[in-house]
Structure prediction request, 345 residues.
Amino acid sequence: MVIPAVTVPLSLVGALFLMLLMGFTINLLTLLAMVLAIGIVVDDAIIVLENIHRHIEEGMSPHDASIKGARELARPVVAMTTTLVAVYLPIGFQGGLTGVLFTEFAFTLAGSVLLSGIIALTLSPMMCARLLKPHSAHGKSRLESWLDARFEWLRTGYERRLHSALETRGVIAVFGALVLVSCVFLYMTAPKEPAPLEDEGFIFAVGSADAYTTLDYVERYTEELETAVKAIPEVNDFFLFNGGFGGGGGASNSAMGGFVLKPWSQRDRSTNQILQQELQPRLSSITGLNTFALVPPSLPSAGGDGGGSEFLSWASAACSSSTSCPTRSCRRRWRASASSSWTRT
Prediction:
């Protein structure tokens, strides 16, 4: 009991350390990976423990039994660990929606499985050599007797209830049917979304004027946009592009901007509330531009597009100096803070 109970938290702590190195957070997918890893960790430790215990019962000393038992199971444990890692690890290298959703799950689970194999072949044999004793050398300890009595009580209680359930199969079948029907009802009524809405503190806006307008015309109305954005207290930083953007030229009647909000601790409203209550009404009041704003999705589209993150990284690098900006009019506007947090969005 003690040896498997020690290996589980050690493997999970090691998995958390790997998550820290890879920049992962504790979320539903990483928690699911650790839950699945617990069963694998326990399996590795138990098979090593049982093999060593068998050698001790055959008359070997705990030290020799630990060495022999670990050597006998070294190849099977390594093979099983390698197989599981080879199954889960490739999921983390997939692209598109699947890759974004399951990268953290795949790497967390693969790291946990790898650590469990190492612990099963190192820590478990060492603990067996120190803790396991042959039963012929001494009688059961008080703790062993107490645990055996409790497990026997659980076994007999479960046996009685199992016999009672088998004698009323009709009731059990009706109960199972009700559970199955309720699962269908819960699935139909439960809200569904690929991922929960996240408040990332960033709003993206695109505007366009008539096709025959000039860049000077667009600049005049983006100045109004700048004034409107400055009036929103939750906006920390923002940037504006006038004319073609993306490095490939483009029409001069277009404009684009990004608005970085203050941290959560410095504002009371969410990103969507600011967008619907403040930003979009102000943008709609600008008569010379047809402007709409949106919150970039946290997940890529079905086609594998990663959203605006790549463009924003490119924009921050391109506009760091006036000579490298690909558009004729690229204006960076900052609030009181001189930070460049928008480049990290």
In short: The chain has three domains: 2-138, 140-192, 202-344. Strands lie at 202-208, 235-242, 254-261, 290-294, 329-334. The domain at 202-344 is CATH 3.30.70.1430 (Alpha-Beta Plaits). The mean pLDDT is 78.
